[in-house]
């Protein structure tokens, strides 16, 4: 069951461009102290594409240790856009991962039947449940509510991280009729409040590195039916998320964490560029709200 706020951890770097594992560990504990339900390792926010195999292994080890110590679920990102290599990556997952976050096959643009065949093959082979990462503006692949519902009936497909770039008709249709044991986590930070209002059970939100407790309170408010409180909190957090996404993720988030003294450097790796001072200042203002 996927519930609450999962924080897709950034990968902090030292000023000489090494992965700063100590800081990563502290940050993971920090967001859990603030009420996050779980962690996501090796997401887009973690700059996974720019990490070497050794760095990825070290980040995974850190995430597994923290999740174990805190007894919280760890979802690990598994990338790949062909079925064979994605199966191999799933089979190579370490012990300690509760689920794998797997994007809809990107760039190739198979048919929706191809997407179904892909995820069914992964689900049959995977040692852990899958969370489908639906993000058509990055993958170039549409997936309908009917397809997600079909996939959600598979016992090894636990949910979807839904990031369509809007609260679209498919989100409404999907949330109106979810398969048993299949959860929707919002993945577009600025739209988390309406997604929760429609019945999403939580979110995987890079924004929740900041104001984690408030994103947690937002989930709780919608779940307990406190609509007025949820609405006003949601509007405020949408502004924060917009400010944090004013430049490519996670550049602004790193800038703010650096300014708050939580990470040693705001460095990101190319082709990302560090966020500008103006974006960081605006996001700092949005935090105080
Ligand atoms: O890494 C993630 O997981 C997320 N990635 C999204 C992105 O970078 O587009 C944003 C979302 O908050 C979580």
From TrEMBL:
The lineage of its organism: Bacteria, Bacillati, Actinomycetota, Actinomycetes, Streptosporangiales. The record marks 44 as: Part of a proton relay during catalysis. Gene3D superfamilies: Aldolase class I. One of its GO terms (molecular function) is 4-hydroxy-tetrahydrodipicolinate synthase activity. Its EC number is 4.3.3.7. Homotetramer; dimer of dimers. Catalyzes the condensation of (S)-aspartate-beta-semialdehyde [(S)-ASA] and pyruvate to 4-hydroxy-tetrahydrodipicolinate (HTPA). Belongs to the DapA family. It is found in: Cytoplasm. It comes from Nonomuraea typhae. It catalyses: L-aspartate 4-semialdehyde + pyruvate = (2S,4S)-4-hydroxy-2,3,4,5-tetrahydrodipicolinate + H2O + H(+). The active site is at residues 133, 161. This is 4-hydroxy-tetrahydrodipicolinate synthase. NCBIfam families: dapA. It holds the Pfam family DHDPS.
